[in-house]
TrEMBL record:
Required for the first step of histidine biosynthesis. May allow the feedback regulation of ATP phosphoribosyltransferase activity by histidine. Coiled coil: none annotated. This function is generally fulfilled by the C-terminal part of HisG, which is missing in some bacteria such as this one. GO terms for cellular component: cytoplasm. Pathway: Amino-acid biosynthesis; L-histidine biosynthesis; L-histidine from 5-phospho-alpha-D-ribose 1-diphosphate: step 1/9. The keyword Ubl conjugation does not apply. Heteromultimer composed of HisG and HisZ subunits. CDD domains: HisRS-like_core. Belongs to the class-II aminoacyl-tRNA synthetase family. HisZ subfamily. It comes from Niallia endozanthoxylica. One of its GO terms (biological process) is L-histidine biosynthetic process. This is ATP phosphoribosyltransferase regulatory subunit. It is found in: Cytoplasm. The gene is hisZ.
Amino acid sequence: MSRLFMFEKPLGMRDTLPGLYETKHKVRHVIGDVMKKWGYQFIETPALEYYETVGAASAILENQLFKLLDQQGHTLVLRPDMTSPIARVAASKMLKEITPLRLAYSANVYRAQQREGGRPAEFEQIGVECIGDHTISADGEGIALLISSLEESGLKNFQISVGHIGFVKEFFADILGTEDRVNALTTFLYEKNYVGYREHVKQLPLSSIDKQRLLDFLSLRGGEEVIEAANALLENGKGRNALDNLKQLWETLADYGQVGDRVKFDLSLVSHMSYYTGILFEVYADQVGFPIASGGRYDHLLSKFGKDTGATGFAIRLDRLIEALGTIEAREPVECILFSAERRKEAYELAFEKRSSGIKVVLQDINGVENLDASTELYEEVTMLVGKAGKESSL
């Protein structure tokens, strides 16, 4: 093992400098306010969870979990997502209250990286979970809230792709017959390897009609007309209930005024989160090569914590959203008061007065400044209180 340099960080970890920090703070605050207006309440969960509970339920790959042992020998994980911890809290402490629950969060999650590839191992998500509601209205609310949150953050050019994991599984199972074949073909979709998908389909021992159905499946993208096209590919009614869900969702979003350019169907959409059971979605924006947000329905996750109920939610990746926004907050105006020992009390009083009126002020002993020009060029205004009382100047 090579010796680490003093400035090295663990693989995938990042520092957040002031400009980016302020941008994240502003965006987080704006989105949080939107979520509160929709009736969602913020909660926090521990960064550390038990591997056997949240770690096992999270659907994050084993090799992406950060693990450690506590003093009792239990295996712990740094939370790899927020949905599973919130499901734990809801099932154990909150579902005796009035349901459905509408919960929100803003927190860092941790996923280990095997090699340096520009992907962070720690990143912040802000999102919501609606727990205890099986209706399509809840799915529609989630997508409409997501759109409102992104628009309020200042994002203009984005699109939501909506699919249904139940439709994909039933459609594939009806044609392919075995779970292994279904999983193999689904992997191509997750990787968005459509060339590989087509080549794989051509090699399958299926009739030419079934092969064509699988190939036509890739074209199921667009507006409401996609549902009719998908129905034409079905046999034996497998997948029809899922399409009915999507039709209801489209009508729900139309009532919100949120269909058209913002929302499109993509029935080939799948997720690495294995707990999704129904409608799922991803958000794409200009200049960003990965989804900036995602979500969906997970009706069986809470049963792992002893409570069988429906749920849906979404998470926004703050780092990717800020990349899509394309701007970093400028440094807020700050004044500086330079003082010598003789006028220290006067400087303190002046700073107190300015801060009380809402002005940001830095107090700096002049003896601690090596290069006066370089040290003061960042400040909007510099006041010098040096030497005998009565000598005051602004740079």
